[in-house]
Write a structure and sequence with these properties.
2 helices; mainly alpha; rod-shaped; about 90% helix
């Protein structure tokens, strides 16, 4: 009888052990499923944390590439304190430098245009003065020619007078 009793106790113990093993296996499967769900949620969080700033940088870089130097990332205080944040701040500094360079070019171009206009005015004045000087030089040349002709006339008249005086003096 003891053997039957032991066999029954052993059978009950095996059944209890199998029931405990099934419960343990069920708990283990639930823990694995929960762990997988937590890991998937964490992975999605990390992916979004990394890709959102990259997408924002890509969008702003695209706008700047199209010539829109007013494009910005919004509030600079929200820039992350990591490599992507450093990249964002560097890009903001680069955009500011580009704006400064373009402003300098525009100012220089404006000054060049103004100087060019002034130079054109001076050139026109010099051309006008040169034309007036040419006219005056022509008038002076004509007057000198007339003076030369008058001097020749006076000289011939003086020669004639000298001959007449010589003729009167010899007679």
């Amino acid at each position: 009888n003891i053997e039957l009793k032991l066999a029954d106790d052993f059978g009950i113990a095996v059944e209890n052990h199998r029931a405990d093993a099934r419960v343990s296996m069920f708990i283990f499967i639930i823990l694995v499923v929960v762990l997988i769900i937590v890991l998937v949620i964490f992975s999605i969080y990390v992916i979004l944390k990394v890709t959102r700033p990259i997408i924002a940088i890509k969008d702003v870089v695209g706008k700047v590439a199209e010539g829109d130097l007013t494009a910005s990332f919004g509030d600079n205080s929200k820039v992350q304190n990591d490599e992507l944040g450093d990249l964002t701040l560097s890009f903001i500094d680069m955009t500011k430098s580009l704006k400064d360079v373009i402003s300098s070019i525009i100012e220089g171009s404006s000054e060049l245009s103004s100087s060019s206009s002034k130079l054109l005015e001076v050139s026109a004045g010099l051309a006008s003065e040169a034309s007036a000087s040419t006219q005056k030089a022509g008038t002076v040349a004509a007057a000198a020619e007339e003076l030369n002709a008058n001097s020749s006339s006076v000289s011939e008249g003086m020669s004639q007078s000298a001959e007449n005086l010589n003729g009167v003096a010899s007679a």
